[in-house]
């Protein structure tokens, strides 16, 4: 009548180093290649009596177990899937429950997002009654990583038509009961509450009623064309209102994938393998140089952020992901290039021979290297709990990258910009978050393909075209109508006045947005323009922001800008070193405060010392800057009161009204 279980989350695989390590621990502790382990195994057989018999027995048991679990006659629903014991327990438990029993299993989310799991999902959905998806942030399973996702799944007798409830992004079991007992009034909370803690409150709108119609929407959005609704992958929807957003995305007639052979994706250089074969060379920990030309720059993930190809530069000694410093876009020279942890092999001809090529030509050739093109680059890993999940920027020709980055070459510049606009928007980020994936692969190609609009093009290019390396791109995509653009808040003193009117057909320094506030506003306006193009409502856009982006909300609540749009303080973990510290310490650089009446005070200042200064007060600080070529330099940073925060929801409302008036 009732089966309850937490089946083992364990892949059945042969671990040769494990059995060898029982006799010689060094073989288990140290990393060895397959060829090295084969050589060491033969010697170990000679050195340790009984090892060969034990090794053979373990191999026989592992291979026999794998053969049984992968046998289609034993587990036909798991055909084509990698054997994992919890998956084997699912059909076993269903058989034990017969035609009337109830099964409750706690297991990972693999069955719901495995691209090869359609047959399993088809059987699963007909039995599923409730799917409660958890994230282990509260360490309910102390031995499991805090970002691990798993679910409580309630199965019943098989039905002809799928129908079940889903609750996603849960942190505590008590939230389930709270959702079912809620009266439906009030707003739906997001991942975190206003205190910045994980949200465990309940709301009736958190319960998603999944049926065949909604599964059909998911199939169109997340799966290959022609996938049956019953085999659709299941996204992690936080509230019922968001199902309407996905419906609009699914109804959009064209997707980026429809470009077909007009775009080409590559991970380019595998960070380990291409060091072994000499394609790329790791710069010494004490000699990571600034790239002299784009050819010398091998891109890594931290180098870029959202619509910003010059986000951070590695330090001279860069041995960890955190050894990167933010780049001040107002301070960099026109031809700036950052440091690079890798450089191409010295044989340039051989290097170019190894570079992937696309089928379309440049200058009459039959094909061309991807290095001949501007490309849209993405970070390959998807931090679902970070400020942003989908991170992309346009990179210039000749720049290589390691496999932590995925770059995409497009046949035309307009296709590049169309993809860049949608992928830089909050709506695209929400879509990628909803997949629940940890790696991008090609999931971005399911996003809508928008038509060409000058309002979106202008904002994307002024965000990305930061140096002379973008001058050819700017010259090709610039339109005279760029000059007719206006900010959605034309009287906001933190935005550069007459910025669009001063744009020129040839790239120059003033064609790029460089201050923090202006760059943020351009992204806000892209969000609104994309939402309006897709037929979303203002309320849907704000709901996406409220629910899916708690980290961004936390940063916006405590990021302050001066009157010129420069950040003077932020709690953003991605902008460590930007602005003043909250409290000044003995090691912080000295500065100077000058009031409107000319009084001057020198010392070390933190945000708490300056936040209430009268309007017109100037704050200066002298910092050692190692992000520019030429060694460590003493550079002045300046801010001017008054200081204020930005309100993204209010900015969305003002931009919405502005573009409704100017674009329709």
Which secondary structure elements does this structure contain, and how are they paired or packed?
Elements: E1 2-5, H1 16-21, H2 26-29, H3 34-47, H4 51-69, H5 85-97, E2 102-108, H6 110-113, H7 118-127, E3 128-135, E4 149-155, E5 163-170, H8 174-180, E6 208-211, H9 212-222, H10 241-251, E7 263-266, H11 273-276, E8 280-282, E9 298-299, E10 312-314, E11 324-326, E12 342-344, H12 348-354, E13 357-358, E14 368-369, E15 375-379, E16 392-395, E17 400-401, E18 405-410, H13 413-423, H14 426-435, H15 454-464, H16 471-477, H17 516-533, H18 538-548, H19 550-557, E19 559-561, E20 567-570, E21 591-594, E22 600-603, H20 607-610, E23 618-625, E24 633-640, H21 648-662
Task: Give structural notes.
The protein is an alpha+beta fold and 664 residues long. 31% of the residues lie in helices and 16% in strands. It contains 21 helices and 24 strands. A six-stranded mixed sheet has the order 1-2-4-3-5-6. A four-stranded antiparallel sheet has the order 7-18-15-16, covered by helices on one side. Strands 22-21-23-24 form a four-stranded antiparallel sheet, with no helix packed on it. A hairpin with a 5-residue loop joins strand 21 and strand 22. Helix 9 (212-222) crosses helix 10 and helix 15 (454-464) runs antiparallel to helix 17. It is globular. The mean pLDDT is 92.
């Amino acid at each position: 009548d009732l089966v309850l279980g937490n089946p083992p989350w364990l892949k059945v695989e042969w671990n040769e180093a494990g059995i060898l390590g029982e006799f010689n621990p060094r073989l288990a502790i140290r990393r060895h290649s397959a060829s090295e382990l084969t050589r060491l195994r033969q010697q170990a057989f000679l050195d340790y009596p009984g090892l060969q018999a034990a090794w053979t027995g373990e191999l026989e048991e592992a291979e026999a177990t794998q053969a049984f679990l992968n046998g289609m006659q034993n587990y036909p629903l798991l055909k084509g899937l990698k054997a994992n014991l919890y998956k084997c327990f699912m059909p076993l438990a269903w058989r034990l429950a017969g035609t009337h029993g109830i099964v409750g299993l706690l297991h990972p989310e693999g069955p719901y997002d495995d691209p090869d799991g359609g047959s399993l999902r088809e059987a699963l959905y007909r039995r599923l009654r409730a799917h409660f998806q958890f994230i282990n942030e509260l360490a309910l399973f102390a031995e499991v990583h805090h970002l691990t996702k798993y679910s409580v799944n309630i199965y019943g007798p098989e039905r002809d038509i799928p129908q079940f409830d889903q609750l996603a992004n849960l942190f505590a079991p008590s939230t389930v009961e709270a959702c079912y007992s809620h009266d439906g009034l009030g707003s739906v909370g997001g991942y975190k509450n206003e205190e910045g803690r994980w949200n465990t409150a309940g709301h009736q709108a958190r319960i998603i009623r999944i049926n065949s119609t909604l599964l059909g929407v998911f199939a169109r959005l997340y799966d290959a064309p022609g996938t049956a609704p019953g085999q659709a992958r299941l996204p992690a929807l936080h509230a019922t209102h968001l199902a309407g957003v996905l419906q609009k995305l699914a109804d959009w007639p064209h997707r980026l994938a429809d470009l077909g052979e007009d775009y080409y994706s590559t991970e380019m250089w595998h960070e380990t393998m291409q060091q072994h074969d000499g394609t790329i060379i790791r710069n010494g920990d004490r000699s990571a140089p600034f790239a002299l030309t784009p050819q010398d720059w091998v891109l890594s993930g931290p180098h870029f952020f959202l619509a910003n190809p010059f986000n951070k530069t590695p330090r001279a000694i860069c041995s960890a992901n955190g050894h990167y410093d933010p780049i001040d876009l107002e301070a960099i020279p026109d031809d700036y290039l950052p440091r690079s942890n890798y450089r191409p092999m010295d044989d340039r001809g051989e290097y170019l021979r190894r570079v992937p090529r696309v089928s379309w030509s440049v200058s009459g050739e039959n094909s061309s290297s991807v290095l001949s093109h501007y490309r849209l680059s993405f970070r390959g890993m998807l931090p679902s709990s970070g400020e942003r999940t989908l991170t992309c920027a346009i990179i210039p020709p000749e720049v290589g990258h390691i496999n932590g980055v995925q770059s995409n070459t497009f046949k035309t510049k307009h296709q590049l910009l169309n993809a860049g606009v949608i992928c830089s928007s909050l709506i695209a980020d929400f879509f990628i978050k909803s997949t629940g994936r940890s790696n991008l692969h090609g999931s971005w190609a399911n996003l809508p393909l928008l038509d060409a609009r000058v309002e979106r093009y202008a904002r994307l290019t002024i965000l990305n075209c930061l140096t002379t390396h973008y001058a050819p791109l700017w010259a090709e995509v610039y339109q005279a109508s760029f000059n007719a653009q206006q900010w959605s808040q034309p009287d906001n003193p933190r935005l550069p006045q007459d910025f669009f009117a001063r744009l020129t057909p040839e790239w120059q320094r003033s064609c790029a947005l460089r201050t923090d506030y202006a760059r943020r506003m351009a992204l806000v306006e892209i969000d609104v323009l994309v939402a309006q193009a897709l037929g979303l409502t203002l309320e849907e856009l704000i709901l996406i922001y409220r629910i899916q982006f708690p980290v961004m909300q936390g940063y916006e609540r405590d990021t302050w800008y001066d009157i010129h749009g420069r950040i003077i303080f932020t709690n953003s973990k991605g902008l460590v070193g930007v602005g003043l510290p909250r409290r000044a310490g003995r090691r912080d650089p000295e500065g100077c405060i000058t009031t409107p009446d000319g009084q001057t005070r020198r010392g070390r200042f933190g945000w708490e010392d300056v936040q209430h200064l009268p309007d017109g007060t100037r704050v200066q600080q002298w910092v050692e800057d190692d992000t520019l070529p030429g060694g460590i330099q003493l550079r002045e940073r300046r801010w001017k009161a008054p200081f204020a925060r930005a309100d993204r929801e209010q900015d969305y409302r003002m931009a919405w009204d502005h573009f409704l008036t100017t674009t329709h």
